[in-house]
Design brief:
The structure holds 2 protein chains of 2 kinds.
Chain A lengths: L12 H19 L50 E2 L10 E4 L17 E3 L13 E5 L5 E3 L1 H6 L3 E8 L16 H5 L2 E10 H8 L7 E6 L9 E2 H6 L2 E6 L2 E2 L9 E3 L12 E7 L14 E2 L5 E3 L7 E6 L10 E10 L5 E7 L7 E2 L1 E3 L8 E9 L4 E9 L8 H8 L12 E4 L5 E6 L1
Parallel strand pairs in A: 4-13
Antiparallel strand pairs in A: 1-2, 2-3, 4-5, 6-7, 7-10, 8-9, 8-13, 10-11, 10-12, 14-15, 16-17, 17-21, 18-19, 18-22, 20-21, 22-23, 23-24
Chain B lengths: L7 H8 L15 E2 L2 H7 L14 E2 L1 H11 L1 H4 L35 H11 L10 H14 L10 E2 L14 E3 L2 H4 L2 H4 L14 E4 L22
Antiparallel strand pairs in B: 2-3
Helix pairs in contact in B: 3-6, 5-6
Classes of the chains: A alpha+beta, B mainly alpha.
């Protein structure tokens, strides 16, 4: 159950000491000018370099099906999800982060999408899984996975962002790496049945206003979903990126609610109850509500507002060369498509339009680039997303002015990376 | 700040002008769920008490269960152990710099306590408490938070929903589109947007809590509760 007890920082002197210890590993390396994030040999063997013929050009490699299910090169072993141990009391109710700084394009590989579990990963035999739809329906339904797959299918690319993404940064810059500051987001293509189609099969009664999707995991996750969203674009998905959902993402079934906070995308979906009022479950009352400075709290904050982050360069991906430099990043909006991204090199004083490349899809990650010559001067990098509703990604200061420092969720403020003359990058705040 | 506290319907209508009722032919896939099957899984409880199972409990009985099943994480008096959540106390802290959000100080509805304890607690042994035990644990948590004063007061399916929590009135429907309207209306500035050069006001490395890159095998696993 443990939600991060204090999202915003270490809480005890003991834990603070251990953070400082772990912090030294990275801080020390950065201080010495070392660059992180390189898995390949730092000093290549000259016998494999021109004019010599490399060994892999002479000896045979492994045959087919030596890797029946393929995996990345062994030289990419550091491209992994990571967690922040001090954040939660146990790994069963915790979060791991997508390595955004090591990924390209807009699709997240299935093994790298961030995780958020509240009762560990349920390992479910699909033959023993059922989806029950009941409540204010004409015909309460019991569906097997095979049944669900008989319905007409849709494919949809959508980002999924945890409402607490960047939540640890509300009180100030804290984590050096976009994996940690922004890595509770991923984007895959889902295959499944429109939820609307399943509800039509059950037959909604006229007073049906809310749904309660429930997970089959040991947290039995539940959230109240308004019927309008369910009938609009919700999907009950069984595949991501062309293959079955991974267990950590809800195998065999999960709810997909494009643009809305990830906590509502119930994994291991076993039951959907139809009702006429919201349930006010634990995750929509004590958690995932935004506490304002006046003591009131905003609830049912479903949509994820427009946001962006520069993934390269970033603290885990420093700059290795002067001269021509490709700046790359991701932008997304839970309210529609990304209309544009602006980039600043001077901490938000002057902005230039970035170049969007690849598909620009409704409620999906969108890739942007900005190419420039770096002469070794310090830079303060920022990106600012604009979406089709006219929403402009705000500064952290503007957000704090509205919401104070204790709202935890929905931190979509502009991120600043400080580029040092030696190419190291640090997470900073500017004014 | 003016806020519409009961604006759920209006906000939804504005969000989904295009949504229409579901009308389509049945494909006759799957089968009817039986009342017995539904009963086994239908555990959710609403603030008005709908969904509560028949049962009863008291804080006095709940204390014993809590000490055995809950206190190792939540503390004897709900004060929380380590990084596990506090469940009691925190009154008067909600507007402070470090709010302590507990059942008494923050949660809006008693039904949520019953529902969550029944479905997800104890952590690692979910859905093992009987309805009577859940009523008792709920009563004990209310007692710890001074909501119930009498440890022998019986909480049951008929009166649970009549017990109100002090923070209920302080929740309001998402109003970002009006309260934060300026984020939609401001034209993005492109040049000379700051009066002077940007100055660094904070650094992550001052308190660098970024995890190191040690392989998982070398990290000490947190205790499994």
């Amino acid at each position: 159950m443990s939600e991060p007890k204090r999202h915003l920082g270490p809480s005890s002197p003991t834990s603070r000491r251990s953070f400082l210890r772990t912090g030294l590993a990275l801080g020390g390396a950065v201080g010495a000018g070392g660059f992180t994030g390189r898995a390949a040999a730092e000093t290549p063997d000259a016998k494999n370099l021109p004019p010599n013929v490399p060994e892999w050009s002479q000896a045979l490699g492994e045959g087919v099906v030596s890797r029946p299910y393929g995996r990345p090169s062994k030289f990419e072993a550091d491209v992994i999800r990571r967690d922040v141990e001090w954040l939660t009391a146990s790994r069963q109710s915790s979060v791991s982060f997508t390595p955004l700084h090591q990924l390209e394009g807009i699709i997240t590989p299935n093994g790298l999408g961030f995780e958020r579990h509240h009762g560990g990963i349920a390992e479910i035999d699909p033959a023993e899984h059922r989806l029950m739809i009941h409540g204010l329906v004409e015909k309460p339904l019991m569906l097997t996975l095979e049944d669900v797959k008989r319905f007409p299918r849709v494919n949809r690319i959508a980002f999924l962002e945890c409402a607490a993404n960047s939540g640890m940064e509300w009180k100030g810059a804290q984590l050096n790496g976009c994996q940690f500051t922004h890595g509770m987001v991923h984007c895959v293509m889902y295959t499944g049945v429109p939820l609307r189609r399943l509800l039509e099969e059950a037959g909604l009664k006229t007073n049906a206003k809310w749904l309660l999707p429930e997970g089959a995991d040991a947290a039995a996750m539940t959230r109240s979903v308004p019927i309008e969203k369910a009938l609009d674009d919700a999907i009950v998905a069984y595949a991501m990126n062309g293959e079955a959902l991974y267990p950590e993402h809800g195998y065999p079934l999960r709810l997909v609610l494009p643009g809305w906070q990830g906590n509502m995308w119930v994994k291991w979906l076993r039951r959907i109850k139809v009702g006429d009022e919201p349930w006010h479950t634990r995750e929509e009352t004590s958690k995932y509500t935004a506490l304002m400075p006046d003591g009131q709290a905003r609830r049912f904050t479903w949509a994820m507002d427009a946001k962006s982050v520069i993934t390269n360069p970033s603290p885990q991906a420093p700059i290795h060369h002067k001269g021509f430099t490709v700046l790359s990043g991701l932008a997304w909006s839970g309210r529609g498509t990304i209309k544009g991204v602006d980039v600043s090199l001077d901490g938000g004083r002057n902005w230039r339009a970035a170049r969007l490349d690849g598909p620009v899809l409704d409620k999906a990650l969108t890739r942007f680039y900005y190419e420039f010559d770096w002469n070794g001067d310090p830079l303060l990098l920022q990106s600012r997303a604009l979406d089709e509703t006219g929403y402009v990604q705000p500064t952290k200061a503007a957000l704090r002015q509205h919401r104070g420092l204790n709202s935890i969720y929905h931190n979509n403020g502009i991120q600043t990376w400080h580029v040092l003359p030696n190419g190291e990058i640090e997470n900073v705040e500017v004014a | 700040m003016s806020r519409s506290r009961n604006g759920i319907g209006a906000a939804l209508a504005a969000l989904f002008l295009t949504a229409s009722p579901a009308v389509a032919e049945r494909l006759n896939i799957g089968r009817v769920a039986t009342p017995e099957e539904i009963k086994g899984w239908d555990i959710d409880v609403r603030p008005d008490g709908k969904g509560l199972p028949v049962g009863k409990g008291t804080a006095a009985l709940g204390e014993t269960i809590f000490q055995e099943r809950c206190a190792s994480c939540h503390g004897e008096f709900g004060e929380g152990a380590g990084r596990w959540p506090e469940l009691a106390g925190g009154a008067g802290t909600i507007k402070s710099e470090s709010p302590v959000k507990t059942v008494g100080s923050y949660w809006p509805y008693v039904s949520t306590v019953f529902d969550f304890v029944h479905r997800a607690m104890p952590f690692g042994a979910a859905q093992t408490l009987t309805p009577d035990e859940t009523y008792s644990v709920t009563a004990y948590l209310l007692y710890l938070n001074d909501i119930l004063k009498d440890q022998d007061f019986e909480v049951n399916e008929k009166n649970l929903a009549t017990i109100r929590l002090p923070n209920e009135k302080n929740f309001f429907m998402d109003d970002r589109e009006t309260a934060e309207k300026e984020f939609w209306t401001a034209k993005p500035c492109m040049s000379n947007c700051l009066p002077k050069e940007a100055m660094i006001t904070g650094r992550a490395r001052i308190l660098d809590v970024t995890p190191d890159k040690a392989p998982d095998s070398e990290k000490k696993s947190p205790p499994v509760q």
